[in-house]
Amino acid sequence: MLVTIPGSEKRAAQHIYVYIPQIKQVSKVVTQESVPSTTVIYQFPKSPTWIENLAILPNNQILLSLTTAPEVRLLDPNPPNPSIKLLHTFPYLSALGLVSLTPNLIYLILGNSTSTSFGAGTFAIWTLNPNTPATTTLLTTFPSAGLLNGLTLLCPSILALSDSTTGCIRLLNTYTNQSSILSRAPEMAPPTPFSIGINGLRTLVLGNRTPVPLRSSARRSLHACPGWGRRNPREERDG
């Protein structure tokens, strides 16, 4: 299902896709020859470490957000001695989605989600400058959000955020800090009360269109909903 925003024909149309991998189907067609080789860049200690998201900087260093700790780390993968360092620890329980607008401006989702609680009402968007010393700024909070998870840029001033427990896509105007709900659909909702639906977000450019694929953790299907086009997110307030 692909939906185009009415009136967006005169400019680059934008779409959002919902994706859940069909692992069983993929395993039937993957052959030994088609499996790419992999190399371990860095091995974390044996203590539980959940890397939730990453962003690759122009110098090939990798920013990592952790859900097992409210941390952002910087990995230098260059051989022969890859190294990792802690950039910042936030006053929350977990770090989730992150996206880089410029090497000096990173947007992050922070909240109090754990293995036993989604942390509804605790989520916020922060900015991070990874230069030494790293600096951070609280951009805005989302008291109505259930579980903010995926994060991507639709344009330099518009962030799209997936809410995994309420089954919706939220928008944030980083210039005004005003938010809206872009779309809410059954396909994005969790199938059971204690699971999550819509998950990761990424922006792709296909010709004159800018679709945003979304991955859902609980459903095995591919859907699409409209992205941000001519519509101003201030027209539909969040909460």
TrEMBL record:
Protein name: Uncharacterized protein
Origin superkingdom: Eukaryota
InterPro entries for this protein: 6-blade_b-propeller_TolB-like, Hetero-Diels-Alderase-like
Annotated source species: Glarea lozoyensis (strain ATCC 74030 / MF5533)
